[in-house]
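Dear support,

I submitted the protein below through the web form. The confirmation email said the job was done, but the results page showed an empty box. After a refresh the structure appeared. I'm attaching both so you can tell me whether what I see now is the final result or a partial one.
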Amino acid sequence: MTTQSAPSFVLEFTKMSGAGNDFIVIDNRFYRFTDDELSGFAGRFCARRTGVGADGLLALNLASEPESVSYRMKYFNADGSLGTMCGNGARCLARFAVAAGVHRTDLDNGSGSHVRFESDAGDYFADVPDDPSAHVRVYVPEPTTPLEERTVAYVDVPVYTLHTGTQHAVLFVDDVAGCDVPGVGPRIRRDESVAAGGTNVNFVEAADRRSLRVRTWEKGVEGETLACGTGAIASALTAAARGLIDGNRVEIHATGGILVVGWDGTFDRPEGLYLEGAADVIYRGSVEL
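What the results page shows now:
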């Protein structure tokens, strides 16, 4: 006598990358998974050796106020923890959402779409060109905490803290390529004297007066990522505050690619603050739950 096993549930996903910061993206408007379920999927499928492999999981959720925003962004780190915001993820999800047909308005030049979306860090805007290879720009609120300088006994440079949708620490170094990111990053990440609840850690080298080289140790991933969008914003604003850059447009050279951070006004009260960079579809696939 044979028994039939219950059929598996097949979850379709899209793998995307924002300057090397990679994500599993799902359209949760159909699936309606709970946050607990999404957290479990992130921990299971973001694993590099036993899953799909990604820095985090993005879910395109229905908007709680559809009359004012197009969708809700939910982001979970690779370890399953909730991420309030992910700059590179926000750009990837905006491109995914436009392709999935969410409500949007046309850009003034007629060559793309403008969307407004909500997240656990507030409301954001994004400009998504029609050209799938063109960069996506996301407009972000100004930092929610003032820039603060801290002294940490085990590093010989100041540690600056700033909240740009999620918590960041910024250290300026002479040679970012030679930094011991795996050694120092985790210590600062968990140092409660730097940030209660932990922080992302950015090691920054001023390449010239208009560009920075940045490496980031990310909490939730618990490792160095190829790029970090909110870290790029924190690094650019902190560099401007220290007088290390000219103007209000900064190129961020991350391991996985180049991001651009720009704003109007002053660094301490930036208006129109934005993050721009690649948001690429890598492939589409499915997993059995």
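Response: this is the final, complete result; the empty box was a page-load delay. The two ends are 27 Å apart (CA to CA).
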